[in-house]
Amino acid sequence: MSAEPLLRRLNPSTPTHITASSSSPSLPRPSSSSTFNSRRPLFPSNPSTHKKRSTTGPRSWIRVDAVSGASSILEADKLSIMRRCDLPARDLRLLDPLFVYPSAILGREKAIVVNLEQIRCIITADELLLLNSLDSYVLQYTVELQRRMAAAAEAEATGAEAPDRLPFEFRALELALEVACNYLDSQAAELEIEAYPLLDELTSKISTLNLERVRRLKSRLVALTRRVQKVREEIEHLMDDDGDMAEMYLTEKKHHMLETSFLGDHPALAYSSAPGAGISVSAPVSPASSPPDSHKLEKTLSISRSRQDSVRSSENGIEHIQELEMLLEAYFVMIDSTLNKLTSLKEYIDDTEDFINIQLDNVRNQLIQFELLLTTATFVVAIFGVIAGIFGMNFEIPLFQQAGAFQWVLIISGMGGFFIFGFFLWFLKCRRLMPL
């Protein structure tokens, strides 16, 4: 066996010179193009494509603590917020400023996702995560929430009666609804102030500039009405669904989970606190009777837990649902009032358009009547042209030799033209085509 093929096998990059003998068959050599194509990768690799395209950079969030009310700036990416609040990615897309989504209020297991105009936040039982932006309403929301929490804490410390006993998530949700409703109401008020003088000016003077201004005004009105309608539908949907309202009570669910975990770690306390439990926990138990007693104990514990949970959830659920429903109803009335303002403005614009159309139709009718009169007068004048054409022919009649023939032709033609013109006017009046 030759050593040269072995060397070529060990080091393929080393060039070898092989001379083909006459006895060995000649092998076809691959061309340079085929060699190049065989070495070219199918998909050219780009170092930048190895990065994850779905990951986005961290965003700035304003964090408000539920206990102290202190605010801080939090830099976190989308994945961290998903793990922190136990939310799916589709819920966080509602808060992304790069996307334009309508207003929404979503109740989840551990958080409430709120997207109301400029307020885009995540409310949990322990904190509030507000998407930071340069909008003044975001700063106003943070300052007002801290002020209300400080007032509630001060009233609780002094023993005075607090204005409301709402949990943290309801206070944050109430303030978000208040800010959104006030913002939409201010937008509607500004639109009203601008619309009514412009519409009155349009009715008195129809011009291209005024029509263009009204067209832009109507576009803004339609967009604002759509936003107000969406907020109203979200509040109405929550009010109609008791399950969604019960899902939004995060503090109660948190306390319930803590109690459940505590009773799971200390079953003896749960059994002793169960109603009808007459067996002492500290009583000695014989080894022979321990297995059945342990099963009875677990069964009694499960029954007592289910009874306590059902009683507590039914009582608290009805109370808290009514409390939240009253809160939502107040802002439903407020946003419905804003929608009524916009609806009235829309009707006023429609009435103005109808009035303008009536005016334009009247002007158009007047132009048609004037055109009809001109057409009739043109027909009468055309009679003189016919008579002049007849007498302008190259022939002689005895009428040409009379001295007053020209005056009689003019008189008879004029009287005939006036008679035809009067006949046309009488016909148009009888047909009610022209008010005379």
Characterize this entry briefly.
The protein is an alpha+beta fold and 436 residues long. The chain has helices at 3-10, 32-39, 78-85, 89-92, 136-158, 168-204, 208-240, 242-247, 250-265, 267-273, 290-391, 405-430; strands spanning 59-65, 71-76, 104-107, 112-116, 119-123, 127-131. Helix content is 64%, strand content 7%.
Structure characterization notes:
It is a multi-pass membrane protein. GO terms for molecular function: magnesium ion transmembrane transporter activity. This is Magnesium transporter. The protein has 436 residues and is α+β, with helices and mostly antiparallel strands. It has helices at 3-10, 32-39, 78-85, 89-92, 136-158, 168-204, 208-240, 242-247, 250-265, 267-273, 290-391, 405-430; strands spanning 59-65, 71-76, 104-107, 112-116, 119-123, 127-131. The protein has a six-stranded antiparallel sheet with strand order 2-1-6-5-4-3. A hairpin with a 4-residue loop joins strand 3 (104-107) and strand 4 (112-116). It starts with a helix and ends in a 6-residue tail after the last helix. Residues 1-38, 41-45, 47-55 and 268-292 have low confidence and may be disordered.
